[in-house]
User: Which sequence fits this backbone?
């Protein structure tokens, strides 16, 4: 038997109701905050991702699904959504007529990571991106949108981690200090960190190897070295979040795994997920639009890992599948009449089902139970003769006789 690829999962019918709930709740919150949906392609030119995310990041170095197209150009399955959204915004001149844009998206992303619980090679994100607003109030709005979304899904024990990694100039200054701190000891760090020392020293703060974590405990904090402007921007965000009663912890090690960030970075984690604990993350990326040849445009956004959120969803928090009516038709006249009724009810907006294989009432009612039907309509030849069918409540087993001509109306009232 052929099986699915490692780290790539099917979403089974028992799981899709919870996904509908996550998606509908996300749409509702994005809409309330003034975001409109954009749908972007699943694959793009490789260069878009290598330029945006950064050549010295784990994603670009080792996690992208890259393949040559027939004309020789290099294509990549999108590992995240921000780069594609920026490309689309520029390509379609969405910032020409109005200078701010608030967009959201859903969809599968692809990263060749080592699969484990909460970490997949195809996973799904809900993301938002706000373009053209420098004011820290938009950072606050983005973070509060993410926070409110998770609260609405009834996720518990969440922590919001917050940091500012400053502007390019702030970081250059900080990196000098960080290197000064690390250099006496760098030969004892893991191989990855030794490589990062030259290529991307900030990422050393994100290393999970116990020695590297321990050895960077006393590292200088980037927040202490922010310029006045970056510091003030960060302080306004802290004050704004306090005003909105959104709790946070400042985490100066939060540097994020993508190179486009500047100033605000944030992540929301759950203690109930093991090592893959981040369910949503984002930050500012004030230079990315320009890097992709657009006008200087500040921007900020986040993406949520929906598989991780689905692992945390309390089951009772989403509505059960729509209740259905079962058409139990049998006999030479009853079966075709029930088939017609099935269509009438569906046209009237009722979820209606039958079992085309069952030929007697017992088998039909067994199927109705298996489908968890709320009601069954029993239509045999006798019912056709009398013009009166039986409506059976599958839970209480109570039965009522209803004139065939009144049936649709009666069902619609019951299902209102
Ligand atoms: P990211 O931190 O790479 O950021 O991913 C965002 C979220 O996607 C993570 O917090 C996690 O929940 C989920 N995720 C990432 N990798 C996997 C995986 N292999 N399996 C399951 N879930 C995963 C971004 O993608 C940025 N584009 C976010 C952003 C938008 N920043 C600004 N705007």
Assistant:
């Amino acid at each position: 038997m052929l099986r699915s690829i490692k780290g790539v999962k099917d979403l089974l019918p028992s799981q899709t109701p919870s996904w509908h709930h996550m998606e509908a709740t996300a749409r509702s919150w994005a809409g309330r905050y003034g975001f409109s949906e954009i749908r972007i392609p699943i694959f793009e030119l490789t260069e878009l991702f290598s330029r945006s995310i950064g050549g010295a990041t784990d994603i670009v170095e080792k996690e992208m699904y890259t393949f040559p197209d027939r004309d020789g150009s290099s294509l990549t399955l999108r590992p995240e959504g921000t780069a594609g959204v920026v490309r689309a915004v520029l390509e379609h001149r969405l910032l020409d007529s109005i200078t701010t844009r608030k967009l959201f998206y859903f969809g599968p992303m692809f990263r060749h990571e080592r699969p484990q619980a909460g970490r997949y090679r195809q996973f799904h994100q809900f993301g938002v991106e706000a373009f053209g607003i420098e004011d820290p109030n938009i950072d606050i709005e983005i973070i509060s949108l993410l926070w409110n979304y998770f609260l609405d899904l009834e996720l518990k024990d969440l922590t919001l981690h917050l940091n500012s990694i400053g502007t390019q100039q702030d970081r250059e200054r900080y990196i000098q200090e960080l290197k000064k701190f690390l250099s006496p000891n760098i030969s004892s760090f893991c191989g990855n960190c030794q490589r990062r020392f030259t290529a991307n020293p900030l990422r050393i703060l994100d290393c999970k190897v116990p020695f590297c974590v321990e050895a960077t405990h006393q590292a200088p904090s980037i927040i202490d070295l922010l310029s006045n402007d970056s510091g003030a921007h960060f302080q306004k965000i802290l004050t704004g979040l306090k005003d909105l009663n959104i709790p946070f912890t400042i985490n100066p090690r939060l540097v994020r795994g993508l190179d486009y960030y500047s100033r605000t970075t944030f992540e929301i984690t759950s203690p109930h997920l093991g090592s893959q604990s981040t369910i949503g993350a984002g930050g500012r990326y004030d230079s990315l639009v320009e890097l992709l040849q657009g006008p200087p445009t500040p921007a900020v956004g986040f993406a949520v890992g929906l598989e991780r959120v689905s692992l945390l969803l309390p089951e009772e928090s989403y509505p059960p599948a729509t209740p259905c009516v079962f058409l139990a038709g049998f006999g030479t006249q009853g079966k075709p009449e029930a088939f017609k009724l099935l269509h009438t009810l569906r046209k009237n907006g009722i979820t209606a089902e039958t079992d085309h294989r069952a030929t007697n009432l017992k088998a039909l009612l067994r199927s109705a139970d298996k489908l968890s039907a709320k009601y069954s309509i029993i239509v045999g030849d006798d019912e056709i003769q009398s013009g009166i069918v039986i409506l059976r409540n599958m839970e209480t087993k109570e039965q009522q006789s209803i004139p065939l001509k009144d049936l649709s109306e009666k069902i619609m009232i019951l299902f209102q």
Summary: The chain has a mean pLDDT of 95. The two ends are 45 Å apart (CA to CA).
